[in-house]
Every structure is written in structure tokens, then in C-alpha cells.
């Protein structure tokens, strides 16, 4: 069976692009499932799939994050990868779908888990906002804050891969400017967007043609998007590589290594399962005469650093 790809809410599960893409597993939060139930659920997943890769957004409530770590610790298993991401909600859903696509390929669980960091670099994520007065995910100038109070103000904001903000119809407020539009990808993508409480066709009428996307799809707005962007008046968007063959070639072209700590295969510079870096840390400086012995010996990554 393919490696299971798990999410923490149903709105991070986008429709499968084809019949081969496996469905995502939704791990229910503490308020919906007690610890005993979570342990039984996860054990069943490991029995059926062998390995579990859970995508953990940075906006997840602390109680939900603790639950994931607690389950992994109690089960005493190295077959659960908790993959952190700082992407906005809609972009996170796209990343999850890409991992679901890759999980049915001939990649090992370690490669699938560590591929999340690689694929994130190729996702362009942003939003059209009616206000940036409370936005703290992207640097906002005082001038932009002041313009947020203007009636009908709208801002195009790119959060990833590089922050960019500009006021539509006026001068850009960001450090870059590309014809009055956020800079887009220079490779083939599909654009996914989701409407909040902002009536605008700017994403489909202006952004999509300028970015030369190969397709546009609308999805419901994730429940956490309004909080992430600090306003319900938004249209969230994200452009990503849709084609499995391209994703496969991208991941397969990266050199595979063996994690020096847990033994899983990995790509990039960090293991997706234990978070150990590819390269060993530099040796510690010689201890002083009064220093403790063994100061330079390597140590296992802590449970918090391995997630």
C-alpha cells in the first residue's frame, strides 16, 4: 500500500486530479477524538499503509500539535513523519495533494516525506485582500496600513516564495514590482483560488493570464484562511505544478541520501522522519579543563526538533 498522507482538517483535502491519486487521511483533533481513539486510529493506519506522513501547518492549535507528538511517542514508532509547513492554507492543501500524487509512485516513505520541503519551493501562494491593517504574515508598510482604511481598497499579496505586497490601481508597496502584479512562476502551473467575502474577478481576469497558467480551478475557502490572512475579505490563490510526471522527474532528479540517524532515504538536507540534518554537526570546541567530559559527542535529535 502507498504511504498514507495525513492532514489535520477536511478542507485541506482537494479533489484528486485523477483516479490514481490516493485520498488523504484526516486526523481528528483532540476535541473530536480522545487519545485512546487517536492511538487506535493511527495504529490501524500504520498496519494498513506501513508509514504515515502528516502535514502539520504552523497555524495548527498547540493542543492538536501536542496530540500528534504524543501519539507518535506512545506508539514508539519511527514510521510517522510530522512534516511542518508555513504555507498559507490553500497552498498547504495543494502541497498535500502533490504528496498524495507522489505516494503512489515508486518512492520510499523517506523520499516522500522529505519531498515536501522541495515541492514547497515551487508553490506561489498569495491572496487578494480588502485590508492589510492586521496582516502580520507579510511585512506591511505604514503607508499600506493607512491605505487599508480607504473605501474599496484592495491589495495583492504574495506570501510565498518571496513576500510581495502592492495596492491595486496605485503604486506598489513591496520591494519588487512586475507590471502591477505579483511576480509569478516561470514554469508551467495550474492556479487554484478560493473566494472569501471579497467580490472580485481579479485573480481569474488579470493574475491568471499574466502568470500564463495552464488551468484555473476554484475551491471552497479553507476555514483557517481568514485568520491566516487577518481578514475575511479575501480571495486566496496558489499556483503549483499539477502534472505527476513533472513532479516525479523533479523529485527523482535530486540525489538520494541515507539518514545518518534513522536510516530512511531522504532528498535535500534534512530527514523527513526524524528531522536530522544530512551533514553531521561540526565537532565541538575542545572542552576547558573545568568543562564536562563528552561535550563533543553527537546526540540524538530531541522529539521537538524531529517534528
End-to-end distance, in Å?
Answer: 24 Å
**Based on CA inertia axes, which overall geometry fits?**
globular
Low-confidence stretches: 170-179, 289-307
Number of strands: 12
Major β-sheet profile: 6 strands, mixed
Q: What strand order characterises the main sheet?
A: 7-6-5-10-8-9
Radius of gyration from the CA trace? 21 Å
Total of helices:
8
Helical percentage:
25-40%
Beta-sheet strand percentage?
A: 15-25%
Mean pLDDT across all amino acids: 87
Pattern of helices and strands: EEHEHEHHEHEEEHEHEHEE
Structural class: alpha/beta
Account of the protein in words:
- With 307 residues, the protein is of the alpha/beta class.
- It is 28% helix and 18% strand.
- The protein has helices at 35-49, 62-75, 89-102, 109-120, 142-147, 202-211, 225-229, 244-252, and strands at 4-7, 25-26, 52-57, 80-85, 124-129, 155-160, 164-167, 190-195, 216-218, 234-240, 256-258, 265-267.
- The strands form three sheets. Strands 7-6-5-10-8-9 form a six-stranded mixed β-sheet, with helices on both faces.
- It is globular, with a radius of gyration of 21 Å.
Task: Please give a quick description of this structure.
The protein is an alpha/beta fold. The chain contains eight helices and twelve strands. It has helices spanning about 35-50, 60-75, 90-100, 110-120, 140-145, 200-210, 225-230, 245-250; strands at about 5, 25, 50-55, 80-85, 125-130, 155-160, 165, 190-195, 215-220, 235-240, 255-260, 265.
